[in-house]
Structure formats: structure tokens, C-alpha cells
Amino acid sequence: MSAIAIQDFYKDLLKDACPEITNFLNENIGKEIGNFNIFDIGEMYKSAKQRPKMPYNRRAYYKVSLIRGRNKVEYAGKTLEVKKFGVLFASPKVPYYYTPLDEDQAGYFCVFTPDFMSKSNIGTDIDYLPIFSAESDFVFEISEKEYEAARAIFQRMQVELSSDYTFKYDLLRNQLMELIHFGQKLKPIPVSDTTKTAASRTSAIFIELLESQFPLENLQQSLQLKVPVDYANALGVHVNHLNRVLKESTGRTTGEIIRGRIFQEAKTLLNQTHWNISEIAFTLGFDELSSFSHFFKKLSGVSPNVYRSNLLV
């Protein structure tokens, strides 16, 4: 699953309404201020020709949404429904799907890139904040009073964003942090053993990385992370540390988990596609058909061809 960049977000949102947006983004994304913007959900919903959709995908930016209206949010195997008022905190690590369930939609959302926060006192990585951690809830139902409190923060940010104040981005970072702390206070995360917390976060992010590569939907896709060391490098940990953490939390080694997920996808592709065995082997990261056949037979007891033939009986 490729990440949707902030440029793609604006292009999809604005369509042809603002053709100069591409040049603007190419010139400004990556500059020291990063990117930050606010949108009025009610106004967007009224002007949309059809109901806005947020596809299930991984985004390369952060998003905080204040919601008024019935909405469904799907992420990490969970489905949550906001019945009236809610607030959502999305990070680049977690793909999600967002669906409005009625026509009465209002609120605000802001989007920002990681480098926007790099000038704040928390540095470039805001994932250490509980609201963006792997253990955090993703969306919260809130009261009308809480909705109005968060709405006031968004409105202040909206006014500031339009101002010509020289230090407005510093002020916007502070207001954004106020909004983040508002979310964290909704359901405080209890203080726990830091070692266990770090280990569980590593396990959760490993699973997210693994699952982000599936499903394989076309022959142009192929696995990029294939072996334990690939995941260890992506997580910035030693491969032995990753193996120990996963063994303690799941009872299986890193290699066993990866092989099990590849085997599961192999069976799905053999069952649900017309791709030939060589094509399936390639998308699953095997350089040789014989290697894939050996891998599959070791785990299933039969070759891929026999497995597929038995499905047709």
C-alpha cells in the first residue's frame, strides 16, 4: 500500500478548481515551515458534487478531524461509528477508511506534514505522543460541550492561518499542540513500564508494516520487505532485538510470522486469481519459481500446482 502524499491529497480534494496548486506545493513542500492547512467540513460537503469519500489507504501526513454528524471509521480491523460528535487523530502509520453516514456534516479538519512540527520543541518525530502511538485509540466520541471547545481551537487556528502575523506558524504549532492535548485528555493512557511499552509498540508497528504490503492486487506489485532484516532496518532496531520482542509477544519468530503471512497470501492468490504460478512467485518476492514451489510445499505438503488443482475439483 503506497502512501498518499500531501500533494495527492490536495489534488484529489481540489480537482481542477485550483490548477496552480501543483506549482505551489512543489515550491513549498519541504521548506522549513512544512505544510499546514485547515478545512471546513460543512462547506466542503455543501460544495461537493457527490458525497466525499476517503479511500482506505496509508497517508504521508497527519490529520486531525473534528466531526459533527454520523460517520463510520474503519482501521486496524476495527469499525467505529461516530453517532453525533467525534474527533479523529490520524498518523502516517495507520491506513483507514472514513465514510459519512448522513447528509448533516459539519466540523473542521487540519492536515500537516511531519516537518511542520519539526520547528516545535518536540522535534521531528511526534509519534512518541500517546495520541499517535500504536496503543492509542484512533477516534473518540465526544460531548457537545467538548465539540464546542475543540471547535473554538480550530476557529482560532483558522483566523491565525489567514493573518499576516510574522510568527503565525509558531502560534499555529502551539494551537495544534493544544488540540492534540485536548485529544489525549479524552482518554488518558496509563503510565506503564517503558520497556514493555516500547516492545509492544515495536510489535504493533511491525505488524502494520507487514500488513501494509497486502493484499497484492496486480502484477505490478511485489513485496519490498521480505526478510527479518528488512523489517528491522525499517524500524531502526537490531534484527535480534526485533526477533526477541516478537517471540515474547507472539510466541513466533520474525521469520515465522513473515513466512506465515506470505503463505496466506499465496493461497489467496492461487484461489482467487488467474495468475500463473510464476507470476504469483514473483509478486511474493521469489526470484525463482523453484524457490516458491519449495516454500509452498514445505508449509502445505503439496506443490502450488497441486493445491490449485485440488481447488478446482
From TrEMBL:
Q: What is this protein called?
A: Helix-turn-helix domain-containing protein
**Is this entry keyworded DNA-binding?**
yes
Q: Which PANTHER family match?
A: ARAC-FAMILY TRANSCRIPTIONAL REGULATOR, TRANSCRIPTIONAL REGULATORY PROTEIN
Q: Which Gene3D superfamilies match?
A: Homeodomain-like
The answer to whether keyword Transport applies is no
Q: Which UniProt keywords apply?
A: DNA-binding, Transcription, Transcription regulation
List, for all copies, the residue spans of the domain called HTH araC/xylS-type: 230-310
